[in-house]
Amino acid sequence: MLPALTALASMAGLGVSLYLTIVHYSAIPLVCTTSGAVNCEVVLSSGYAVIAGSALPTAAAGIVWFLVSGALAIGQWTGRSSRLITRLQVAWSALGLLTVLFLVFVEIVILGAICLWCTAAHVFVLVTFLLAITMWQSAPAQEGS
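Structure (tokenized):
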């Protein structure tokens, strides 16, 4: 059940990341408020919206992160669950959570604006982390250790 939920969270996060990447590279208007503290335009047009030293949007890194997380979850879900896969999912989700904490700091402290789409992706990373920790804590009991 938990790997399936992790896979679903990864697919949802992948969808958000794909949307933000498409918006970055196209003339498609961003569906989000552009005034006040919730202002996707401020966040997504800032220098932090691209990976440092490149023209790649940060959302493209989200695509990769959610694909890897989803692949690990599917590996567990289809019965290939092992301590190694569980540990990899915990490490990968912890890396994602650290990145989210940095990005939330940037949004609130440096930019003074929040992007709802980014927040949605951040929530999916947090959910993935919490599910990974839960699977890791229950892994020894499931594997007879």
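The first helix runs from residue 2 to 25. Confidence is low (pLDDT under 50) at residues 141-145.
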